[in-house]
Amino acid sequence: MERTREPAVAGYFYPADPQQLRGAVKAYLEAAKSEMINVPKALIAPHAGYVYSGPVAAHAYAQLQNSAAKISRVLILAPAHRLAFDGIAYSSDSGFRTPLGTVPVDTHELNRIAALPQLTRLDAAFDNEHSIEVQLPFLQVALNRFQIIPLLVGRATPSQVQEILEALWGGDETLIVISSDLSHYLSYSDAKKLDLATTYAIEALDPDGVGYHHACGRTPVNGLLLAARRHRLTATTLNLRNSGDTAGPKDRVVGYGAYGFH
d(Cα 183, Cα 123) in Å, to the nearest integer? Predict the structure, then answer.
């Protein structure tokens, strides 16, 4: 029996009303400037509440303005916040619902790679998890018809993430989205310094430069950096801010970066 995963943070991280949500996402995208001419192969986007990270995430998804007809599959790799586990998890859900509708899961491609040893089916890891969900409304507004392969990264290595990326790399029809915030709960000035160092490492495709305190999604980020080096991609910083710049106080901030790879 097929099961659709209901949204966990609608009305909390982003508007639960479809019209309000679509309007908010469109406004974020219209305010962001597109820096890329070519279709990006991969994006890194933050996953906090939209009032905090939405303006930054929009700079990533604005790169898709000329890609709607080309992209039909989105591989999303995100850190797990709610459950500790070894490896990388997928769910038995056939779709993920947001107020804008249901996004189908590409079960064919997921089943094709399910035998990889680092992959495990673990529905509980997706319960009340926001790191994948908050990316979906941006994708729903930016793209046409598409499927997703949603994966949560637990205790895994960058090379294990890279192996999955290589298995699902595909062509222009496949977009990779890495969901990650940057530094957490530092002062405004300290966060800016650390997030800038993280940005330099991402631009240099240097996974050794993105450590524990640099990004909550450091493992999927570093897996992408390994794959980007192999495929000779170029990383571009699209926006770099923190919650003190968007909607929060400056004493304890969370860093957000948007990056494109082409």
Answer: 28
Neighbours of 95 (CB within 10 A): 16
Six token digits for residue 158: 């960058």
| 0.70 exceeded by pTM | yes
pLDDT attached to residue 1: 64
Chain center to CA of 218: 12
Pairing label, strands 147-153, 253-261: unpaired
Which parts of the chain sit beneath pLDDT 70?
A: 1, 34-38
pLDDT of residue 75: 98
- The CATH number of 24-183+195-245, from 1.10.510.10, 2.40.440.10, 3.40.830.10, 3.40.350.10, is 3.40.830.10
DSSP 13: T
pLDDT of residue 205: 98
Rounded to whole angstroms, the Cα distance separating 213 from 225 reads 17
Residue 177 tokens, joined? 């989205």
- The SS3 assignment for 177 reads strand
> What per-residue confidence (pLDDT) applies to 103?
98
Q: How far apart are CA 238 and CA 226, in angstroms?
A: 20
